[in-house]
């Protein structure tokens, strides 16, 4: 979906110059909508297997898992909330360094995760608002055309959602109005024609 391009670009920008393992956004259907690992975008999210739960801070779950014999990652999972509804999750992977204080890693990553989550929710809000406002503007313009008497105006857009059904209904309504108006005009013209014939007829 083109609407998620905003998030993909945002994630790539967020990872620039950082030393994190990955940053991924997963929607409510467990589909990866944005990720620093491009091959995962659009595919089902693969949950961590055999991870060790380190703890939980607020709504953020933290777990460590091995990716190689001598390498481990810490996964921070945070929900994305929009209008008090859980619409997805952010996963941020950080290289686990046993020589570095774990608390220091967690504090730093939590701060970044908070920023990323708020930014992602803001982008989602923008995407959802655009997805609704654009079709509404189209409908408003279409009704204004009909109001001005342009009964030949059609939206002529194909969408696979509720707005697509509304657009189709509008076009069908406009078609019916145009035909009805033409029938009235034809009947009126025929009536005038008949009157003219009667007027010219000899007494």
Please explain how this structure is put together.
The protein is of the alpha+beta class. Helix content is 47%, strand content 25%. The protein contains 3 helices and 6 strands. It has a 6-stranded antiparallel sheet with strand order 2-1-6-5-4-3. α1 runs antiparallel to α2 and α2 runs parallel beside α3. The longest helix has 46 residues. The chain is rod-shaped, with a radius of gyration of 30 Å. It starts with a helix and ends with a helix. The relative contact order is 0.09. The mean pLDDT is 77.
List the helices and strands and how they pair.
Blueprint: H1 5-15, E1 20-27, E2 32-35, E3 52-57, E4 60-68, E5 71-82, E6 85-95, H2 102-147, H3 162-200
Antiparallel strand pairs: 1-2, 1-6, 3-4, 4-5, 5-6
Helix pairs in contact: 1-2, 2-3
Structure, briefly:
By secondary structure, this protein is α+β, with helices and mostly antiparallel strands. The protein is built from three helices and six strands, in the order H-E-E-E-E-E-E-H-H.
Major sheet characteristics: 6 strands, antiparallel
First and last CA, distance: 75 Å
Structural category is alpha+beta
What percent of residues adopt helix (DSSP H or I)?
A: 40-55%
- So what's the overall shape? rod-shaped
Number of strands: 6
Order of helices and strands: HEEEEEEHH
β-strand amount: 15-25%
Low-confidence stretches are none
Q: Compute the average pLDDT.
A: 77
- Give me the oligomer status: single chain
What is the radius of gyration? 30 Å
By DSSP (H or I, 4+ residues per run), the number of helices equals 3
